[in-house]
Amino acid sequence: MKTRATFFRKTKDSLMRAFSGFATSMALVLMAWVIFTIVREGHSSISAELFLNASKPFGEVGGGIANALLGTVMITAGAAALALPPALAAGIWLAEFGKDSLLARAARFTVNVMMGVPSVIVGLFAYGVLVTTTGHFSGFAGSFSLAILMFPVVVRTTEDQFSGIGDALRESLLALGASRARSTLTVIWRAARSGVVTGVLLAVARVSGETAPLLFTALFADTWPTSYFSGPTPSAPVLITSYTMDSPFESMHRIGWSAALTMAVILLAVNITARYFGAKRAAKRK
Amino acid sequence: MRRILDTDTAFRWFCKAGAIVGLAVAIALVAVILMESMLALRTAGFSLVFSAEWNPADGSFGAAGALAGTAATTLLALLMAVPLAFAAALFVNAAPPNVAVPVAHALDLLAAIPSVIYGMWGLFVLCPLLQSVLSRFGIEYTGFGLAPSSLVLALMVLPYVSAVMRDVLAQTPVALVESAMGVGCTRWEATWDVVVRSRKAGLLGAIMIGLGRALGETMAVLFVCGGVSAIPTGLLDGCTTIAATLANDFAEADGVHKSALFALGGILLAFEFAIQATTIPLIGRRSKK
Amino acid sequence: MNSRKITENILSVSTATLLITGVAVFGFGCNGKERLKINGAGGSFPAPLYQSWCFDYSQDISHPKVNYQSVGSSAGISQIKAGTVDFAGTDAPLSEEDCEKSGLEQFHMVSGAVVPTVNLPSLAQSTFTLDGDTLADIYLGKIERWNDTRIAALNPGLTLPDLKITVVHRGDGSGTTHIFTTYLSSVSEAWKKDIGIGTLVKWPCGIAGQKNPGVCNNISRIKGAIGYTEYTFALEAKLQIAFLAVDGKTVKPDEAAWPILGKTYILTRKDTPADKMSAMADFFSWCKQYGGDTARRLHYIPVSK
Fold this sequence. Notes:
The complex is a heterotrimer.
Chain A: H1 6-42, H2 48-52, H3 66-98, H4 102-115, H5 119-134, H6 139-163, H7 167-175, H8 180-208, H9 212-217, H10 236-245, H11 250-285
Chain B: H1 7-43, H2 47-50, E1 54-55, E2 60-61, H3 64-94, H4 97-110, H5 115-136, H6 146-170, H7 174-182, H8 187-198, H9 200-216, H10 219-222, H11 242-249, H12 256-283
Antiparallel strand pairs in B: 1-2
Chain C: H1 3-29, E1 37-42, H2 47-58, E2 65-70, H3 73-82, E3 87-90, H4 96-102, E4 104-118, E5 129-130, H5 132-140, H6 149-154, E6 166-170, H7 175-187, H8 189-194, E7 207-209, H9 211-221, E8 225-230, H10 231-236, E9 240-241, E10 243-246, E11 249-251, E12 261-269, H11 274-290, H12 292-297, E13 301-302
Parallel strand pairs in C: 1-2, 1-3, 5-10, 6-7, 6-8
Antiparallel strand pairs in C: 3-12, 4-8, 4-9, 4-12, 4-13, 10-11
Helix pairs in contact in C: 5-7
């Protein structure tokens, strides 16, 4: 047997430890750099005006991002309304009833594949289905595309959470005479709730930052989002893209960066709270 | 006599309906993309993939450049991200909990930042930086192209790969690690020779997830790639990717051009499909208690 | 399969269908019924002006709300042909047959200048001049460095940097490109023969930017870059404009003799419903009547009517 010198092995060990620490720090440093850039570029335009005014076109004073933020809320809420009922139902079905049937296996595979579909392609699909046919862009078409992106993630999370609960609980409920419906919707749901809620919040947060599908479906408008179903609807990601990359006006660049900063802060806050409460709940359960 | 419709049946069918909706949408998506690509597949055929002449004004739709760009940016991104992700996963698993938990959360937050912000950072910070750094070495560079695209993609893929690797490594039975240490392995030897070897499939699956994410990324790459439709030959060359081409051209495309874009989307979809199909058996599912 | 399972399957499939149909009906059926809205999209060339006009016009609540999005001329044409917008703006005019075939009306709205812009920090304070032939050769890739003798000849007294020329052009179908390539074809036989005129041409070299602002962004980020943009964008992005030598004299974009001028057009569909048609007619005549000052302020040339 080949013996390796202890010194050599110890050095290798130390080197790899150092490298793993280095790699982690590098990742964190890069992230800090990106956040620092957003803060540096975006903080100067943060003002009450920014959050109260609607966006205004080139060169006009007093433009804000309020309509875009509101539009994002509407489009994301619409996406959640479209995606959550079927997704939660599907996840529960896969975990509780379908299990290993042919339909279940097909559904699981499809859901996994859907997780990998690029958002651009979902945008194309939504464009073909809802924009060309109706003859106008709409916030609803945007919600539709975001819902497709959200659906598989929520199904996966729900299924994972529900299957993670031991059968002992189910069997004791059945022994007590509860119907499957009642037991799933009350007791088992209560056990899986925190994980599912965390997963849903994270999915909603991620989807609210998607730009590509909205470019093809909701476009943008310099007005308050009153035409959710009938016309172009403003949204924060599209505003960020068009103000920073699509405008020569320095003032619009500033507003775009401020919008990016706002979105980043909101998303990070949602992520941190969701994870924190999710972990706390899980720990409490144990 | 049992009622045809009792609460349980009703509940079951409602849930099943959810699964069917999902299936229906997925099938519709594939169908629409296939249908829309037909025109281009009939007209351009194999030249879509093998020719690098992308000139919609002329009617030539050779997307070899976009395909090569997609492949190159993805591979380079993975080359940079995977070792770092692996090392970070090792760190988090080995470090004491009061360090590991915040670090893990911080890494996960990298994934929470929308991709458009990475694209902005790339355009406003990375590209000028690359240009000025390389000019110090006498290399004249625009700052756009393969290099910044791969770097930004690597940054985006890193948190996902790292998170999955962390989960995979955490699933190793403690007994395995302890027995390795018991025979006198150093920490690194235990990890590399024993743990990694036993978790190879899962780690490979994590890399595939990163691959899938990088392939489809649009906004981060769109503004830093340079939009050059030729096959990139060097790190400093301008390039384009399938996703970037789709985002650029779709709004103005019609006829064969639009169909060609759908066909490219279909190719991307096929790749994603293949990746997901291989990843699932590798990572496996979380076991039922 | 027992009756329970059959019932289950039938009911789940029908629920799924109902859900999907419900979503579809909702998506197709709903139409907001408030103030009339007009949506337009098209080139980035006139976008600063059109969006300003839309904003001023829509301030009056009795007017319909008009919205113009800058998506590029070709995208605008595509959208109006598909009927997903009410009007389109393009700097590359459609031919008569194309208008006939697609059922579109086209008219000239405003004119503007396209200017070559450069990023040469060492020359920022000086007047930099090129001429048509040199510009064409730069874009053809024949002139590769800024201190080339031909450029030096046009700029006696300036020390030109030894820097590689990075050409920036449009990556999307662009009316601005159409105007620019029309000019290049008129001054360079080589350009006319090899590349020609178009909204999307086979650029021999360089990198692409998205719409006018994208080109501006790229130019400002790359030392030694040259690009072509609409005049307003170059001014707002604070880019250095290269003046052109015409017949031996240096011409500035503000002057009447500036050679790269382009007209920009509006496209509407002949089958637009009457209420939207009259609303649009009202808007466009308002622009022609009251919009001249805004146009001149933003360096466009309004159509004199």
